[in-house]
Structures are given as C-alpha cells and as structure tokens.
Amino acid sequence: MLRVSRSFLAIVFCVAVHAAIAAADGPPVAPVRNAADDHWGVKVDDPYRYMENLKDPDVQAWFKGQSDYTGGVLAKLPGRDEMLARIKELDNGRPYRISQIHRMRDGRLFYMKINAGEILGKLYTRSKLEGEEKLLVDPSARPAPDGGHYSLSFAEPSPDGRRVTYGLALSGSEQDVLHVVDVASGTELSDTIDRMEDGYTAPQWLPDGSGFYYSRRQKLPADAPATEVYKRSVARLHRLGTDADADPAVLGMDLWPNVTMADVDFPSIVLARGSKWAIGKIKHGDSNPLTLYAAPLGTTADLSKQEGATSPWTLVCDVPDSVVDFAVHGDQIYLLTSHHAPRFQVVRTFLGKQGACEDFFYYDPKTN
Known about the structure:
Blueprint: H1 6-23, E1 35-39, E2 42-46, H2 57-75, H3 80-91, E3 96-103, E4 109-115, E5 122-126, E6 134-137, E7 150-157, E8 163-170, E9 175-182, E10 188-197, E11 204-205, E12 211-216, E13 234-239, E14 249-251, E15 266-271, E16 277-283, E17 290-296, E18 314-317, E19 323-329, E20 332-337, E21 345-350, E22 361-362
Antiparallel strand pairs: 1-2, 3-4, 4-5, 5-6, 7-8, 8-9, 9-10, 11-12, 12-13, 13-14, 15-16, 16-17, 17-18, 19-20, 20-21, 21-22
C-alpha cells in the first residue's frame, strides 16, 4: 500500500490553498485612517494605527471577516477531510511522545509525555527506567477561566528529586505561573510565583534544594502601558515557604555597579551540576549574542544583594564577543562564538578570569 509522508501532504495542501485563494473573492480590506507623527522634522505616516485598539468594533469586524474568508477558502479545498484524517492517522501512529527528560543521579526520571490522541503534555516520574510510571502534573485536569486551558511550559526537579518546580501557561500565554509539587505525596506546596516568562532560563535549584533562582517580570501599576512589562526584569532568589514578593534581587538593572544592563535586557541565573560557580546570563531582546558574568556560590549559595556588599560578579564575555551558547564544567566555561569565526568555534576559559574572547583558550578536541 502506498504510504504518503506528512511533508508530501504539506506540499499538496499549499498548492491547493493557493489555487483556492486565486479562485475566491478577495478578503475584506482594512480602511486607511492615517495618523501622522513628526519626528525631528520628518513626517511619519501610520495608516493602520487604529488597529492597535483591539476593542474597536470596526477592528473586531475586520478580524472576523478575515477569519470567515479564510474558513471559506479552506472549506472548498478538494480532499480536505481526507487529508485531515491522514494527518491525524500519522500523528497517532506512535503511542506517545516524550520530551524534557531529567535523569537523576540515583536513576530516577522526570519527563513530559503526550499520549496519542492528547494535545497537552503531562509531567511523569518513575524510580528507574524499568520502574512504574507515576503521573505528577496533569494540566488538563485543572479548570481554567473563560473556557481556556493550561499547558506545561517547564519542569525542573530539585537535586535530590524530592520536589519539582513547573510552569503553567494559560491559553497560549507567554507568561507562566510557577508551582512546586512534592514528588512523594503529589501535593502542591504553597509556593506560587506569577509573572514568569516562558522560553527563558528555567528555575535553577540551589544545591541543597532549599530554594531556587528564577527570573520575574516587574509588577506594573494599573495605568502603566502594557509594553512596560517587558522592561526591568530581575533575577531573584526564592527560599521555599517564603513570600515570593519579598524575594531578594540577584541580577538586574542598576543592581551592581559593575553589571551593565538596559531596561529591555532579560537576566537569569544558570547553575551547573558539580560546579561552584553561578553564571549570570543576560539576553538582549531577540539578539543572539549573550553577556555572561560569573560568581562563586560560596557555602550558602546566596548571591542576593545585601546592604554594603560588593559585587560577586566577574565579566566573562559581552556582546562584541559574539557568544551564543555556553557550558560549564567545574571551574571552566566553554563558549560557542562567531568572533573571528564565521562558522563558529568553541573557546574555553576559567571562571573568575576577566577578559575578552581574544584571551580565551581555543578548544582543540585532539588535545583537550
């Protein structure tokens, strides 16, 4: 029997869509309502600024018209129902999909799993590879407001595997609410933290499991522009059982005199197993190059800003060094950089040593 791949179906579908669009009447046209601004003597026109007001009835009608037009085009595609049935068959051809696997030192496993026919991942654990599977978190079992749904965005077990932090996002939101679950009992701890950003560094547990580092958006006053939420994010330290709104800052704008940040930069903390160093990672919007700092964890692993304390951070690399990824091993850090290397290269340096990429040790797999 002829087996049809999903890629081939996608090509056929695109061709059919273009043909259907060509044969259909045009979509609704948005009216022009120009708004002009003067920037230092230069006139800048903005003919569709009114569309920023999503509560405008005319804007809502335009969106609905676009949706109705698209639905009409797709409904006329020949073989659409058969193609959809085939795609579902391919999706359900494997019993499950597993991702975000965490294997602990004692062999315990934590992972996300989506069974065939499901659309949301769930968090599972087992004592060993051959052990019995245990469901820890099922987002589909939680009622969501306004007919929405929750989905799991991350899950991070503590070093001893006793607890897991996980993020719940509401109906596709890019902001998560952090929760903590006790693995043995399956009960939720009282620690919940909102205004966490999906897609950035997941919470990093302290070595003793007493708390974790995480990054949080600022809390805006009611009259603040919505875009302000993307500014002045701060990396903080949370101890289990304490008030998250009182969590001390660790890395952020204007926090340490030798750490330079813009208001749109996003800071986070990265801890590597077996290393006595913390990495302060600063992501500059959607730009790829990272700024990295390093700080010794010490006995308490507390890097929060204390009154009169000097900065624990040492610069590792900055934007001109073109570092896009890194890995820590003990007292060393390996950096993936395009600095003087259009096809990228791996360089190495020792943590706590300040310098630019020109001073790094180039990694040679034949000799290192």
